[in-house]
């Protein structure tokens, strides 16, 4: 029984207990812990933003030789976001927003097409080498049927009658199995985290076991 | 050790295609039996000596030398080292590397982009001209919404609508506002109340506008109470605890959980079930869908939420992408179906000693997988 | 003109980033790096200042008006400054690391682990096999949960293989279909944003 | 029917208490539920077990942060302990992203404390974070010394006796990526495909299914998936009589098993009550219009 003597471990243990007090009911201790968490993580993100981005990507290239004066333009565009603070110039924020959101949209289109659609279609092709054994052929056909039925389930341009309705029913079966698996894994991941916290309290803090 | 210039073991090099230059692809052919390692060495134009340039993986017989400079000529020599002897392979002409302006391996993405893009845009134009013309099947959820609001007002209980935790730019939040409009109209007709707690101030003001117009269109502009749409808090679990409190106090007969939810979805759905309300959820947060399906009476799964809002609002932009995606799904299904049938025929033909179909099929597969690198 | 210019900007930069994907030439690589690593990050940093402002405005008004729970707002603001200053003064020294390892990490882990409790209570009070779909989901979830713990191996030797089959055949097939559907929707939305058809992110028409 | 209705309205706090008890008890007094190692973990363990002091070093790459620590820290420590016990030279690489260096340091410090006879620089080496992700993986294939320059503590690479004969992947017998993200795929693409080095993976339970395909195709030498994978590895270590230190994963596994069983029990009880109450209502004519 060697209770930890480190002030840090005690701090972490107290905060952990304050968050778990929410399980009893929403109380001031929980709200205190949550606000500390919100503030600290916002402060942490700002520090990372400062050291990993603003200093190496903006301050140094601009103010240290060789000066990259072209950085003035993105900074000007950035300053336009301050327009929102005044009613008169609030339309100014549309420009940096348009640049950022429009730019990312253009950037994401080919990546989405490649990894979310073409890669999935390519993987769905049943190559003969998948038919090595009886079991793998059944699996290959089942996977193909599952994909087919799932896409039919999410098809909205046709009424669900006779054959079409049946395919959708098969689709929902596959979808529910996939959701069941996701459900099981989420439970496992969250319980692992709970075990991690309990091990911290029992082992690192109270020193039992 | 004898220096044996094996005729069979040979080497070739070419500028690496579809790249930004500065790289040469080196291939070795018919690697002798028992080779342990293949050492690669390089001679720069104007130099006298070959310098060491890494290894060529035996199982691939190919590697990219990325340490070359564009425009300079290079000669490569491969040395396959077996147990007690080694074999040398050399090239004749110099090779230089250069950048390309178009990456041919990404043609598949370009073709699909142009096709899908034009399909979506044409549907949007069609929808603008004649919104009713484009057919979207009536989702069963819309009947469930009617039934839920009806039963709730019969019992004289209010309706609770929770919009999720994301801001106004999230697709799920936008869809939830369209569904709110339909629920608002129903509630106005039945002369009941809809309570709308909020996590985001902008969503709150938009929801107030939506409900005001919904009540007005149902002919009951005075029945809308602005205070029923209010800002609760911006803390995740604080919001969930707050909404639970409203559920236990107001005892709504029907609860709508529509929008993008995080881990707090469980607390809401559980309390909603425990007070016996009919719960209709809808979210584009795939991680929360399993929990909603297990706890709620009805769930709109991801895309169904967007289809429902397109059905209600007939908004050309929404109709355009739903119809465009539907057509793309049909095309993809035919492609996969045709590929599977052709693949199995090619497989059978190959067993029967005729591999030509098989080569065509592999070529097709390779074409699709091109952009993967 | 004031309304059309942002749409033109969105299309211009969007189209440039789109075709950049197809051009391997070093010049296009440089363009990509400059835009992504400098322009986007600078605008993101400024927008962060904007988010920061609304965070502080919200809490300052709460404190000034002594609204319910204003102490917590004060605590939140002090925490931001405390973390920021400790990061800047010690330039992310050991004290700053300890704040992360012994305050932020435990709080984050504990917050996420709360869900283990909520799942348990919802399992009893709300997860009902009310129709075929929910039954299928709960049965599969049970199999996966049993199969993934040592007890599963002893209940039935084939349990881990069954779970593996569920993951690599039916679950993968459905996930692939869902991913294609979500992917198509996301591409359509990105196109509408780039072409200026979708402008709601700019705050209304 | 009153009992079942009241039973179903059980206050959620009792269920919270139930989960807490079920998780805490095994942590205080481990039950030691039997663990049966599965093939992917056995493959990884046996591959490392065949290595010895003269074989090339094993590189353990850290790729997780506090949020996935409960699953992945026991794996990293088991791998380091296995190598140090067998005298296999081990390189602990602090990771491809800055967020992981704290975890790597915690793992190597705790494990090396149990091996006072092992000397830093001769039996194990700790390399720090280098920016560049895939560029780093590629340049390790060319030359480790030029890639890192010096180790985490600032001592130059070539002055570390263990790394003297080690130039790049061809001198490394195995790279194990302990990762909570998709970095194992980078190691396959940039290390194995390009330089042919053997890759092992230790990942969270959530990402394990995605890597089965690579396992079956032989690209991964072996795999540890989730806390169960770590517990199996610890079990294999114990069966060989190797020192395992505090078997965090195995102890955790007891709690995980009991918690899963409790949740399954709750689902069954909840539904049993639900159907009994509904049948009762139907018989007494109160038919709630349920689809």
Number of domains of chain D: 2
The side-by-side strand order for the widest beta sheet of chain D comes to: 3-2-1-4-5-6
Structural class of the secondary elements of chain B?
A: alpha/beta
Largest interface: A-C, 113 and 117 residues
CATH architecture of the largest domain in chain D: 3-Layer(aba) Sandwich
Q: Using only CA atoms, what is the Rg of chain D?
A: 24 Å
Instruction: List the secondary-structure elements of chain B in sequence, H or E.
Output: EEEEEEEEHHEHEHEHEHEHEHHH
State the distance separating the first and last CA atoms of chain D.
23 Å
Structural class of chain D: alpha/beta
Helix content bin of chain B: 40-55%
The gross shape of chain B turns out to be elongated
Instruction: Write down the oligomeric state.
Output: heterotetramer
Q: Tally the helices of chain D.
A: 11
**Beta strands of chain B, count:** 14
Helicity level of chain D, as a percent range?
40-55%
Mean pLDDT across every amino acid position of chain B: 85
Termini separation of chain B: 41 Å
Protein model, in words:
The complex is a heterotetramer of chains A (209), B (373), C (205) and D (291). With 209 residues, chain A is mostly helical. Chain A has 3 domains: 1-67; 71-125, no CATH class; 130-209, no CATH class. In chain A, 73% of the residues lie in helices and 0% in strands. Chain A is built from 6 helices and no strands. In chain A, helix 1 (7-20) packs across helix 2 and helix 1 (7-20) packs across helix 6. Chain A is extended, with a radius of gyration of 28 Å. By secondary structure, chain B is α/β, with parallel strands linked by helices. Chain B is built from 10 helices and 14 strands. Chain B has helices spanning 107-129, 140-154, 171-190, 201-217, 236-250, 265-274, 289-295, 303-313, 316-351, 356-368, and strands at residues 3-4, 10-15, 24-29, 37-44, 51-55, 62-65, 74-81, 86-90, 159-162, 194-198, 229-231, 254-258, 278-283, 298-301. In chain B, helix 3 packs across helix 8 (303-313). The longest helix of chain B has 36 residues, at 316-351. Chain C is mainly alpha-helical. Chain C has 3 domains: 1-82; 90-127; 129-197, no CATH class. Helix content of chain C is 80%, strand content 0%. Chain C has 8 helices and no strands. In chain C, helix 2 packs across helix 3, helix 5 (132-147) packs across helix 7 and helix 7 (159-168) runs parallel beside helix 8. The longest helix of chain C has 39 residues, at 26-64. Chain C is extended and about 65 Å long. Chain C starts with a helix and ends in an 11-residue tail after the last helix. Chain D is α/β, with parallel strands linked by helices and 291 residues long. Chain D has 2 domains: 2-26 and 255-280; 39-246, Rossmann fold, CATH 3.40.50. Helices cover 52% and strands 11% of the residues of chain D. Chain D is built from 11 helices and 6 strands. Chain D has helices spanning 2-8, 12-28, 39-49, 69-86, 101-113, 134-142, 144-148, 183-195, 208-216, 226-239, 248-283; strands spanning 58-63, 90-93, 124-127, 174-179, 199-203, 220-225. Chain D has a 6-stranded parallel β-sheet with strand order 3-2-1-4-5-6, with helices on both faces. In chain D, helix 4 (69-86) links the parallel strand 1 and strand 2 (90-93). Chains A and C meet through helix 1, helix 2, helix 3, helix 4 and helix 5 of A and helix 1, helix 2, helix 3, helix 4 and helix 5 of C.
């Amino acid at each position: 029984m060697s209770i930890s003597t480190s002030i840090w471990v005690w701090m972490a243990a107290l905060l952990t207990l304050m968050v778990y007090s929410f399980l009893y009911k929403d109380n001031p201790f929980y709200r205190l812990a949550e606000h500390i968490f919100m503030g600290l993580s916002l402060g942490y993100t700002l520090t990372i933003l400062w050291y990993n981005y603003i200093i190496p990507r903006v301050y140094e290239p601009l103010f240290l030789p060789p000066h990259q004066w072209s950085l003035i333009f993105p900074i000007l565009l950035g300053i336009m976001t301050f327009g929102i603070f005044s009613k008169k110039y609030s339309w100014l924020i549309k420009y940096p927003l348009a640049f950022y959101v429009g730019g990312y949209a253009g950037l994401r289109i080919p990546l989405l097409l490649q990894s979310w659609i073409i890669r999935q279609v390519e993987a769905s092709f049943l190559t003969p080498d998948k038919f090595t054994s009886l079991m793998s052929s059944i699996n290959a056909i089942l996977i193909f049927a599952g994909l087919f039925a799932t896409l039919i389930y999410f098809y909205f341009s046709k009424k669900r009658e006779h054959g079409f309705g049946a395919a959708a029913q098969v689709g929902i079966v596959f979808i529910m199995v996939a959701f069941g698996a996701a459900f099981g894994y989420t439970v496992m991941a969250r319980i692992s985290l709970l075990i991690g916290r309990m091990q911290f309290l029992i082992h690192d803090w109270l020193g039992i076991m | 050790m004898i220096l044996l210039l094996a005729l069979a073991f040979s080497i070739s090099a070419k500028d690496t295609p579809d790249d930004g230059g500065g790289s040469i692809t080196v291939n070795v052919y018919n690697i002798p039996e028992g080779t342990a390692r293949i050492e690669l060495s390089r001679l720069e134009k104007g130099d006298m000596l070959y310098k060491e340039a890494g290894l060529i993986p035996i199982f691939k017989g190919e590697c990219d030398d990325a340490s070359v400079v564009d425009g300079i000529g290079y000669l490569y020599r491969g040395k396959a080292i077996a147990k007690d002897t080694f074999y040398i392979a050399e090239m004749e002409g110099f090779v230089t590397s250069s950048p390309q302006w178009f990456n041919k391996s990404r043609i598949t993405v370009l073709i699909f982009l142009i096709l899908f893009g034009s399909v979506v845009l044409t549907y949007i134009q069609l929808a603008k001209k004649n919104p009713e013309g484009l057919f979207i099947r009536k989702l069963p959820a819309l009947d469930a919404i009617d039934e839920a609001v009806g039963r709730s007002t019969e019992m004289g209980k209010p309706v609770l609508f929770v919009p999720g935790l994301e801001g106004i730019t999230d697709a799920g939040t936008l869809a939830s506002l369209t569904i709110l409009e339909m629920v608002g109209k129903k509630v106005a007709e039945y002369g009941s109340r809809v309570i709308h707690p909020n996590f985001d101030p902008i969503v709150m003001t938009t929801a107030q506008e939506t409900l005001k117009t919904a009540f007005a269109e149902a002919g009951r502009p005075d029945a809308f109470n602005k205070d029923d749409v209010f800002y609760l808090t911006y803390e995740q679990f604080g919001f969930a605890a707050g909404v639970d409190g409203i559920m236990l106090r107001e005892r709504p007969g029907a609860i709508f959980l529509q929008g993008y939810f995080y881990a707090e979805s469980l607390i809401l759905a559980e309390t909603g079930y425990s007070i016996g309300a009919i719960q209709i959820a809808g979210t584009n947060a795939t991680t929360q869908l399993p929990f909603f399906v297990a706890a709620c009476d009805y769930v709109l799964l991801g895309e169904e939420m967007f289809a429902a809002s397109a059905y209600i609002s007939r908004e050309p932009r929404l109709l355009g992408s739903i119809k465009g995606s539907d057509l793309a799904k049909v095309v993809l299904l035919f492609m996969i179906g045709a590929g599977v049938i052709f693949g199995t025929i090619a497989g059978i033909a190959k067993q029967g000693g005729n591999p030509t179909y098989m080569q065509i099929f592999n070529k097709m597969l390779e074409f699709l997988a091109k952009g993967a690198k | 003109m004031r309304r059309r210019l942002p749409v033109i900007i969105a299309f211009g930069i969007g189209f440039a980033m789109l075709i950049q994907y197809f051009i391997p030439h070093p010049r296009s690589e440089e363009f990509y790096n400059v835009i992504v690593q400098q322009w986007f990050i600078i605008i993101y940093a400024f927008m962060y200042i904007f988010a920061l402002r609304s965070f502080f405005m919200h809490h300052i008004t709460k404190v000034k008006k002594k609204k319910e729970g204003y102490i917590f707002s004060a605590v939140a603001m002090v925490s931001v400054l405390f973390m920021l200053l400790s990061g800047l003064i010690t330039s992310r020294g050991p004290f700053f690391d300890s704040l992360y390892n012994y305050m932020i990490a435990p709080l984050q882990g504990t917050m996420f682990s709360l869900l283990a409790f909520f799942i348990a209570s919802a399992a009893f009070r709300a997860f009902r096999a009310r129709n075929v779909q929910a039954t299928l989901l709960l049965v599969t979830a049970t199999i996966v949960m049993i199969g993934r713990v040592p007890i599963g191996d002893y209940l039935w030797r084939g349990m881990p293989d069954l779970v593996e089959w569920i993951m690599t055949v039916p679950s993968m097939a459905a996930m692939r279909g869902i991913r294609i559907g979500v992917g198509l929707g996301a591409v359509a939305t990105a196109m509408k944003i780039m072409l200026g058809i979708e402008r709601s992110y700019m705050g209304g028409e | 029917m009153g009992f079942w209705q009241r039973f179903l309205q059980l206050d959620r706090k009792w269920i919270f208490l139930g989960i807490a008890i079920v998780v805490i008890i095994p942590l205080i007094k481990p039950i030691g539920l039997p663990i049966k190692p599965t093939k992917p973990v056995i493959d990884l363990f046996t591959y490392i077990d065949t290595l010895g002091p003269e074989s090339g070093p094993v590189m353990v790459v850290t790729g997780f942060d506090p949020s996935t620590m409960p699953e992945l820290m026991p794996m990293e420590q088991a791998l380091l302990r296995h190598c140090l016990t067998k005298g296999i030279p081990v390189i602990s690489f602090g990771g491809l992203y800055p967020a992981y260096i704290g975890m790597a340091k915690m793992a190597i410090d705790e494990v090396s404390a149990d091996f006072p006879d092992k000397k830093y620089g001769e039996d194990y080496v700790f390399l720090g974070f280098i920016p560049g992700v895939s560029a780093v993986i590629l340049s390790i294939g060319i030359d480790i010394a030029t890639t890192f320059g010096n180790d985490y503590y600032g001592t130059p690479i070539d002055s570390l006796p263990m790394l003297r004969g080690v130039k790049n992947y061809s001198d490394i017998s195995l790279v194990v990526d302990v990762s909570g993200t998709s970095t194992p795929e980078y190691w396959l693409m940039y290390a194995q495909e390009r330089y042919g080095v053997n890759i092992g993976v230790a990942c969270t339970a959530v990402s394990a299914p995605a890597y089965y395909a690579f396992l079956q195709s032989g690209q991964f030498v072996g795999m540890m998936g989730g806390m169960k994978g770590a517990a199996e590895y610890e079990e294999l270590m114990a069966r060989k009589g190797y020192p395992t230190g505090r078997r965090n994963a195995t102890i955790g596994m007891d709690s995980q098993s009991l918690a899963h069983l409790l949740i399954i029990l709750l689902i069954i009880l909840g539904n049993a009550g639900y159907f009994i109450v509904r049948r009762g209502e139907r018989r007494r004519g109160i038919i709630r219009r349920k689809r």
